[in-house]
């Protein structure tokens, strides 16, 4: 690949990056480990629910996991449930042929395990009201998901950050759950998300070599407007506050554990050969990161003050 001085079309980007997709796909398949959702679910704890089989009605006392973990598990599961919409978006952008298509289907198959495993765990352990959960699933999937980003570069930038953010959210949810089974399951899911992040991150690194200014613009547009894919679910603002207050996923983690590590990997602030628009995009990126750092510090101060009041 060689650096070009003009913006590349979507078709040109797909063709130029396909050899990289092939190499990254081979690398992914070599390191991805087969696993089975049913092995991570404590089936012996299950009991029949009320309804057509006349079992026991769900009660909040059925589970001992923390409320923050319960909220986060539901948010994470409903996010995973929108997989058909995600598949549609990436298949529309990347295509279903060649290496791109092989990756699209492989990614979808791997992601499908996450919703299966988490739902089975929640149902068997009675961690949530299954009726409320099913109604939330129906509502969220009826709304679907549509990317806010046009073009493959912006979509690649988004998933590079989003996959890492999801990994961290899953991992930390397991840690605060107080349940070793839950933590083991979500650690397994997080491992998948990390491999997916590596695929997209490495692919966008190649895009920086191919079209640095164009890619810098895409990255800045995504970083400055990033939202988690669960943004559209009912009650998400309130749920996200609960998740942030519990330290599962907050502004500091978004900045220090998601954005900055990926940007450092790309050497975003060391790339040479940017045109005027690329330099402008990098300046905007730097300014936004400074603002985000300040906002994260303010949130941490408010959270500590709230915890101190609660303890007092």
Automatic annotation (TrEMBL):
Pfam families: FA_desaturase_2 (PF03405). Fe cation 2 binds at residues 111, 163, 193, 196. Binds 2 iron ions per subunit. One of its GO terms (cellular component) is cytosol. GO terms for biological process: fatty acid biosynthetic process. InterPro entries: Fatty_acid_desaturase-2 (IPR005067), Ferritin-like_SF (IPR009078), RNR-like (IPR012348). It comes from the Bacteria. Its cofactor is Fe cation; Fe(2+). GO terms for molecular function: metal ion binding; stearoyl-[ACP] desaturase activity. The keyword Translocase does not apply. Fe cation 1 binds at residues 80, 111, 114, 193. Keywords: Fatty acid biosynthesis, Fatty acid metabolism, Iron, Lipid biosynthesis, Lipid metabolism, Metal-binding, Oxidoreductase. The keyword Repeat does not apply. Signal peptide: none annotated. Coiled coil: none annotated. Belongs to the fatty acid desaturase type 2 family. Homodimer. This is Acyl-ACP desaturase.
């Amino acid at each position: 690949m060689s650096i070009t001085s003009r913006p590349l079309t979507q078709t040109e980007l797909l063709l130029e990056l396909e050899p990289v997709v092939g190499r990254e796909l081979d690398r992914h398949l070599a390191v991805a480990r087969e696993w089975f959702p049913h092995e991570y679910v404590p089936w012996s704890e299950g009991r029949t629910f009320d309804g057509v089989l006349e079992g026991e009605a769900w009660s909040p006392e059925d589970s001992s996991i923390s409320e923050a973990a319960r909220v986060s598990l539901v948010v994470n599961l409903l996010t995973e449930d929108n997989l058909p919409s995600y598949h549609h978006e990436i298949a529309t952008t990347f295509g279903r042929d060649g290496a791109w298509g092989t990756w699209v289907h492989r990614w979808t198959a791997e992601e499908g395990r996450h919703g299966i495993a988490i739902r089975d765990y929640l149902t068997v352990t009675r961690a949530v009201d299954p009726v409320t959960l099913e109604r939330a699933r129906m509502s969220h999937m009826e709304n679907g998901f549509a990317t806010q980003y046009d073009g493959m570069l912006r979509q690649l930038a988004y998933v590079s950050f989003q996959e890492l953010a999801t990994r961290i959210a899953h991992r930390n949810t397991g840690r605060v759950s107080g349940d070793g089974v839950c933590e083991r399951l979500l650690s397994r899911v997080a491992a998948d998300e990390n491999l997916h992040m590596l695929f997209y991150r490495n692919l966008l690194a190649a895009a920086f070599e191919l079209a640095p200014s164009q890619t810098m613009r895409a990255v800045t547009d995504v970083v400055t407007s990033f939202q988690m894919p669960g943004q559209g679910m009912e009650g998400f603002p309130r749920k996200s506050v609960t998740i942030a207050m519990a330290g599962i996923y907050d502004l500091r983690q978004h900045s220090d554990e998601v954005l900055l590590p990926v940007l450092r990997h790309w050497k975003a602030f060391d790339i040479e050969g940017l045109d005027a628009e690329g330099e402008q995009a990098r300046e905007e990126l730097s300014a936004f990161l400074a603002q985000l750092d300040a906002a994260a510090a303010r949130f941490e101060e408010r959270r500590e003050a709230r915890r101190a009041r609660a303890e007092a």
